[in-house]
Amino acid sequence: MGTSGESAIVGSGAEERRAAARSSIYGLFQDALTYPDDEVREGLATGELVELMRKGLALAEVDFTPAQEWWRALQEVGGTEDLAVEYTRLFDAGASGPPCPLYGGLYGGDRMKKMEEAVRFYNHFGLTTSEEQRELPDHLATQLEFMHYLTYREAEALHAGRDPGPYRRAQRDFVARDLDSWIPKLCERLEEHQANVFFLSLFKLLADFLAWDVRQLKAY
């Protein structure tokens, strides 16, 4: 979709700050969960991503406390060279498909229907998946990027004094129907396949964040 490079607006209002922080968090998860090439590993090894995640969660005023061992895992394992090997084992390899696929439609229900629903969400906001990157609408990176976009637009609307309601409703429905419905199942698979502590911690943090975000969105 080409939205992950946008910088969320940081304003003076509390709601605007929270929306901007949430946008940053979704973008950080998207970055952290791409294939860990040299550039990604370097960013993880410096600790910058972990620090930005901590700051984002604080600014968003989350009401859960991430486990300290998760932070240690993200800090200590993130820069190792074998991270790419583990990523391939979990998410890319396998004769009949990877053991822990990053496609939400593979975690129950009619995958084609789920992809069609996701495409309708994207198209409603004038977005399409990238043909160059061959992204599928139910891939985790695509869905995180969409949430990064919606939260950015929410912050932008608040900054301009416009109604953020359409963006909040879209976020609520999309997270509840898609991300929050299959990420916990992915966490279970990661445990079953003895994922390394980095990916297990990162996905558990994502699952907790999504559950928290759904609660906030339903409260509006």
Number of domains: 1
Q: Using the coordinates above, name the CATH class.
A: Mainly Alpha
**What composes the largest sheet?**
none
CATH superfamily: TorD-like
Distance between termini? 27 Å
Q: Number of DSSP helices?
A: 9
> How do the helices and strands follow one another from N- to C-terminus?
HHHHHHHHH
CATH topology: TorD-like
Oligomer: single chain
Structural class: mainly alpha
Question: Can you describe what's shown?
Answer:
- With 220 residues, the protein is mainly α.
- Helices cover 66% and strands 0% of the residues.
- The chain has one domain (14-219): TorD-like, CATH 1.10.3480.10.
- Helix 1 (14-32) packs antiparallel against helix 3 and helix 4 packs across helix 9.
- It is globular, with a radius of gyration of 17 Å.
- The protein starts with 13 loop residues before the first helix and ends with a helix.
SSE blueprint:
Blueprint (H helix, E strand, L loop, with lengths): L13 H19 L5 H8 L2 H13 L7 H10 L5 H10 L18 H14 L15 H21 L4 H28 L4 H23 L1
